[in-house]
Amino acid sequence: PTFSTLPTLSTPPTPTPPTLPTPTPFTAPGPHLCKYTCIITDVGACVSCFYGAVDKGQPEAALRHAGDDATLQAAVVQRLVENGDAVTATEYASRCGMEATDLCSSEELARVAQERRDAYLQLPGEVAAAVVFVDDEEGLQRAAAALLQAAVVGLDTEWAADLTKVDRGEKGAGGKRSRKRERGKKKQIDGLNKGDVGAIADAAEAAAAAAAAARRVSEDDGDDDDEQDERPSTASVVALLQVATETEVFLLDLPALLKRCPDALAPTLGAVLSDPKVLKAGFGIAEDLRRLAVLHPIAFGAVREGGPASGVGPIIDLQNVWAAGTRIAREEAAGAAARGRRATAAGY
To answer: Where are the residues of the annotated region Disordered (predicted)?
Structure first.
């Protein structure tokens, strides 16, 4: 039999694999280095840190630490709006080159501003008019001229928040020096209450001695090796100096003054603090003077650091006066009670 030739089977073509897109390398979200808190964190934790600073009444410190970061600047402004401080929010937004209305409507700003005014006691008009903000050389010279005419001025300082502590709910850094100062204050007050100081005048002299010690900042290096590397942190920088007479209150923006007219501080504020005819009063004033001396040694520091030739003074620490007055009141109350008991025993 004749067989037909079978057809030759062709080899099926090899299928070409589909071209797949090149995969994009995966980048895990956070954590990354937050340069503002100097800890490894994520953006959410960093923003919450700034929220905490604003909530604690330190919006200026938060804005300063935000630097040029638009996200963190907006977080500070937004938190101010949420807290009802529309006035400060508007000011900060302007300083950062944004509009507060970008974050909320003008009606919302007006509403929170009114709510804030309704929630807090407002200063009487004549008192509010006596509060003067100082952030340039002209205002500084005017403030110094008024302060030099006063017999007594009240003094207090405020400093920046430590944002690395705010986020973790910790107290500000201070180390051994801070603890030593606190122990010293407690020992001094306990001594006053026990009668180691016989009169308020003696307490004032003790305050003057404490302030004199505070002026010797360069000598306060500690006696332990582990204290030698301590340096003032940004949280110890004085942000606001409050000085008042009987009729005026001056709020001095020291960071702004140091930037605009640093050479004007010594002949103005330095002259006020060193004038022997002007008594400087404060509560825990030694710490205020210590921080001022660290901030600007020429204006507020010791003579050996180029500070005022006559030193800083005279001063009186009202904390010591209060402690001495409390001791005297206790003694008088105890004496009156003893006399009452004797009168009762005698049948009067």
So the answer is: 1-24, 168-190, 212-233
CB-based contacts of 69, cutoff 8 Å, min separation 6: 36
- Give the pLDDT mean for 290-315: 77
Beta bridge partners of 252: 134, 241
Give the global pTM. Answer: 0.54
The structural architecture, per CATH, of the domain 125-169+178-220+232-325 is 2-Layer Sandwich (3.30)
d(CA 268, CA 288): 18
User: C-alpha angle with apex 204: 202 to 210, nearest 5 degrees?
Assistant: 105
- pLDDT mean over 283-296: 88
278, 274, 204, 273: which is closest to 245 by C-alpha? 278
CATH 3.30.420 location in the chain: 125-169+178-220+232-325
Residue 300: how many other CB atoms lie within 10 Å? 28
Which pLDDT band, with edges at 50, 70 and 90, does 11 fall under? low
pLDDT for 265 equals: 93
What's the pLDDT score for residue 224? 41
pLDDT tens digits along 230-268: 444 544 678 899 999 999 999 999 989 999 999 999 999
CA angle 299, 245, 259 (to 5 degrees): 35
pLDDT of 94 above 90? no
167-208 pLDDT, tens digit per residue, is: 445 444 444 455 555 555 555 545 544 444 444 444 444 444
